[in-house]
Amino acid sequence: MKLILLGPPGAGKGTQAQRLQESFGLVQLSTGDMLRAAVKAGTDIGKQAEAIMARGDMVPDAVVVGIIADRIAQPDAKNGYILDGFPRNVAQAEALDAMLAGKGDKLDAVVELEVDDKILLSRIETRAAQTVGGPRADDNAEALAKRLKVYHEQTAPLTAYYKSRGVLKGVDGMSDINDVTRQLEAVLGLTTKKGKLA
Ligand code: ADP
Questions:
Q1: Which of 62, 142, 171, 177 is the most buried (most CB within 10 A)?
Q2: 8 CB within 6 A, ligand 1
């Protein structure tokens, strides 16, 4: 199964993707995690991305499209994956469609985690306080405001893009974490061994 999780920063994409990875063996492909690893490792991409990410802007499309193209070609992505943080604008979505079409492949579903902007700042403050090794460079009020603005301007139009292609599903991202997981499994038609998600 090839899946996209859509939603603003702090919507819970990473948390839910990790759960789907554990339960169903789908690999979580987070462009944010990959870029943070590149920054940490001091690669050329990392050097290019560091300041952009810290202020909450988008890394150039060519960079993230290249990262994703390499990553989905790896053997562990063969049985399916969850894209978390990609695509983030229509140009990236079109690049992904072309990439998949080139392999005779397509997306199975795009699930939007629907949340209210008002709760995002408090979720991100909690994450910043709990992150081992200290908060992310972009988990502060100023960068978050920028990330939300970028989200509404550039990423939100993807819901219409995927709706028109008949693959969009929505879940209520405001309910508790286990409930969101259950809703996700339901809309995706996935089932786990009894008790696994209790
Ligand atoms: P969040 O969803 O909480 O904003 P991510 O970890 O997905 O955080 O992304 C952090 C930052 O990494 C983004 O603000 C952006 O700078 C960069 N980034 C991640 N994915 C992409 C992408 N697909 N295109 C451009 N920039 C990206």
A1: 171
A2: no
The number of the ligand 1 atom at minimal distance from the alpha carbon of 87 is: 23
* 3-state DSSP assignment of residue 30: strand
Q: Mean pLDDT for the chain?
A: 93
Contact between 111 and 169 under an 8 Å Cβ cutoff? The reply is: yes
List, in order of start, the domains of the chain with CATH numbers: 2-26+79-197 (3.40.50.300)
Tokens encoding 36 = 């943070």
Higher pLDDT among residues 193 and 181, named by residue: 181
pLDDT at residue 193 above 80? no
Question: What integer is the mean pLDDT of 154-173?
Answer: 97
Degrees, nearest 5: CA angle 156-58-154: 20
Reported as half-sphere exposure (CB side, CA atoms, 13 A), residue 86 has a value of 30
Mutate to test the pocket of ligand 1, among 6, 33, 35 (most ligand atoms within 8 A of CB): 35
Q: Kindly state if the Cβ of 155 falls inside 6 Å of ligand 1.
A: no
Give the single-character DSSP code of 76. G
